[in-house]
Amino acid sequence: MIRRLWRHRAGRAGLALAAAVVLLALLGPLAWPYQPDLPDYARQLTPPDARHWLGTDAAGRDQLARVLAGTGTSLTAVAAVFALTALIGLVVGAVAGFLGGPVDAVVGRTIDVLLGLPPQITALAIVGALGVGTGNLVVALVLAGWAYPARIARAAVLGSHRRLDVLAARLAGIGRWRILTGHVLPGAVTTVLVAATTTAGETVLTLAGLSFLGLGAQPPAAELGQLLADSQSSLVSSPWLLIGPTAVIAAMVAAAMLTADALADITDPAPAPARAGRRARAARTGGDGALVATGLSVRYPDGTHALRGVDLTLAAGTALAVVGESGCGKTTLARTVLRLLPAGTAIGGAVHVAGRDLLHLDRRALRRSRGYLVGYVAQDPYAACDPLRSLGHHVAAPWRVHRRRPPAGVVRDRIAGLGIDPGRLRDRPHRWSGGMVQRATIAAATAHRPAVTVADEPTSALDAGLAEEVLATLRGASSALLLVTHDLRLAAAHSDRVAVMYAGRIIETGRSGDVLDAPRHPYTAALLAATPRPDGTPVRGLPGSPPSLRDLPAGCPFAPRCDRRVADCASREPTLSDGVACWNPR
Amino acid sequence: MGRRLLSPARAGLRRLGQAAATLLAGSVLVWALLALAPGDPARRVLEAGNVTNPTAAQVEAKRAELGLTGGPARRYGRWLAGAARGDLGVSWVTGRPVRDELGRRLPATLRLAAAAVGLGAVAALALALLAAAAPGRWPDTAARVLSTGALVVPGFVVGLVVLHVVVLRGADLRVIADGRWATVLLPAATLALAPAAAWSRVLRADLLRAAGSGHVDVARARGASTWWALTRHQLPHALVQFLTVVGTGVAALLGGAPVVETVYTWPGIGAYAVAGIASRDLPVVQGYALLAIAAYVAVSLSVDLAAAALDPRVAERRR
């Protein structure tokens, strides 16, 4: 765990800071010549100089020596609170979660209730009862703080009796407590330590605050918060007295925060946010047709080469279906045309929509063109709608986002034209059926009659009967349609042309009927065989799985799964010629 | 979807029950402080009343007067009944009812807390929107540096610097902290610093998370600007969570109030409670803790109910 923390940037900084503070507390008092509690009334409140690096306080004591001693006191108290909350939390939470039943019910409720109380107030009240002093402060903070790690420990252990290793141990005849200490607790220890770390920074600050109020260490003992309180009376003339204690407190809090952040990162590895990067330039080519893509290639920041030279033309007034398995690059193609790729993605080639160079539009022009050049219908109609906004809002949005008012009656007409009762415009999307929501998003996407409508799996969240209907609506509403789907049969029925994609390339393209009736690429044939047919021909699944787009081997990427392999397939990748990219087409 | 949805009314009732349970547990804890405290309370009260060497009979009588006779359950019941009526006992130091002492100072603390919540929420909102509009760019970095500084340095140190170094040194500027609205700005800003930093971080993360959802893509594909998407589609989703975070942040405000009130000599209940701890005046501490816990429970309850009202899915998602 420590090693993984060290490899994490924030984790390394946190560990280094923590180590620095510990070394300061341990070695500092040995190395520094002055005593923390030796007054020297000849040198009261001297500013920092070569002898007294942090100056002296009102009694002429060396401030650095006091800070070093105070760091020791504070660090010990924080460490004690950390260790005790983690230990008590671990034991109480884990035992309750492991035992289950009434014990767990009572402990679980107690933990929940305690977590509903404000921790600093609880700590303050307990100190109020116990009396002042560092020891009482630690007790108070532990009593106020054990519930959080206990909840984490309980959650980690709950349900462990169903875990395979625990079952195996039970079957092997190992006793309950041995299982708890040998199998269940070790797993919970890490999560509890992470939980305790997230509150450690808070502990440092609370401790400093309460000591500042005079509730912690009593003079002449030094403690960081109390040093700050001591300096209060002479601050107007000697503000430098704040520097030392504040710096150490800040370092301790920062160490805890950085370590906690890094631990959260390590234990929950979400993908790192993409970095902004530059885009590859490419030669411009004009062209006719609603959408013309030439030599389009896309590489994501993680190295995935999702598109590897795609050429396609979508003529105005027609529909082109892009078909393939998931991971073949079809969604990337759609998002490239929409210019919705993550920052840092390298794009090569060109895309022209209605004669305009889409990839080189600047931000302003791109924003203005959106909804006019390219419209977008997403896969899941519910996800495509802001759940907090009414359906009427979504239909009117195409005008509103461009700071325009929808023409009078247009929203109503469009809704009615889609067969939706205009009286329900104020309903939120979750009250509507999937088909209705999707038809409304189609209305929104095509509001400005964009040159191209891009639909990414627009029917995969709907049932089959509805899919036909929605696709017909989509077709009717679009001037030119780029339909991305995995369903070759459905696609062919609703498009003029089909482009089949595999491993980031188009491997077969042609008129929909031709491709459906007589597929020439073995992959297209396999894809067709894998889709259910109304006449009941048995379905044959596709063998193997698509290749990784990070490092493709030489040769045809489909060769390992192909039943028509020839010698060339392993060495050279075929390019599209006469509508098919294969060395041995049918 | 197979899961029984609670009606909003039932979900609200359930939350109300939780709040009541927490409040009750808090009252047990506050009452138990008396058992934690060393020494005999009856003797302490007598000594405070200048009876230096009380006789056993005097102590017994005082004990009965303070309601310290009988088993724990009876004593707790008596204490709770009193507290529910607003009777928090008498101060061991002054002999005056704790209720009056706290009541006199409560308005000042309420002003401070309200100003701090307002200032903090506005600052957090501004900082988070700036950061989320250009993630990774300089406004984001600046916001992060600022919030880290505010989180790492104790609030009272900032208060000390402001008070002693900037204001008192700055010639004839005087700080009057008399508990009125006119003087609330500096203490409230000091108190709000750390919570605002924490809130802005949560809000920034939620705004960016909302940016990744499908409907924001769709809005952007439609031509929505960054700012439009941010304010119309991301903020409304992050706002409910923000409200909840601000609600729980009230705990941090309540916890910080005693320190900030002491630094600025703000005449509120926090500074009074600190003085009570120093003089071992337990009823004052108990009264303060009970009041703070009740306030916290009430705030988190209303925040949760408000969140449910703002976003019906929150209520439906629960359990």
TrEMBL record, chain A:
**Keyword line:** ATP-binding, Cell membrane, Membrane, Nucleotide-binding, Transmembrane, Transmembrane helix, Transport
The record's section on InterPro entries has: AAA+_ATPase, ABC_Ni/Peptide_Import, ABC_transporter-like_ATP-bd, MetI-like, MetI-like_sf, Oligopep_ABC_C, OppC_N, P-loop_NTPase
The record's subcellular location field reads: Cell membrane; Membrane
Task: Please list the residue ranges annotated as the ABC transporter domain.
Answer: 291-528
Pfam families in the record: ABC_tran (PF00005), BPD_transp_1 (PF00528), oligo_HPY (PF08352), OppC_N (PF12911)
Which Gene3D superfamilies does this one have? MetI-like, P-loop containing nucleotide triphosphate hydrolases
Q: SUPFAM superfamilies attached here? A: MetI-like, P-loop containing nucleoside triphosphate hydrolases
Please report the stretch or stretches of sequence annotated as the ABC transmembrane type-1 domain: 71-264
User: What family does the database annotate?
Assistant: Belongs to the binding-protein-dependent transport system permease family. Belongs to the ABC transporter superfamily.
| Protein name, per record | Peptide ABC transporter ATP-binding protein
Q: What's the source species for this entry?
A: Pilimelia terevasa
UniProtKB/TrEMBL annotation, chain B:
Q: Which InterPro entries match?
A: MetI-like, MetI-like_sf
Q: Where is the ABC transmembrane type-1 domain?
A: 106-307
Q: Which GO terms describe its cellular component?
A: plasma membrane
State which residue ranges cross the membrane: 20-37, 112-133, 145-167, 179-199, 238-260, 288-310
Could you give a GO molecular-function term held by this entry? Answer: dipeptide transmembrane transporter activity
Q: What is its main location?
A: membrane
Q: How does it sit in the membrane?
A: Multi-pass membrane protein
- Keywords of this entry: Cell membrane, Membrane, Transmembrane, Transmembrane helix, Transport
Mind telling me which Pfam families this protein's record contains? BPD_transp_1
Top-level taxon: Bacteria
Where is it located? Cell membrane
Record's family? Belongs to the binding-protein-dependent transport system permease family.
Q: What is this protein called?
A: Nickel ABC transporter permease subunit NikB
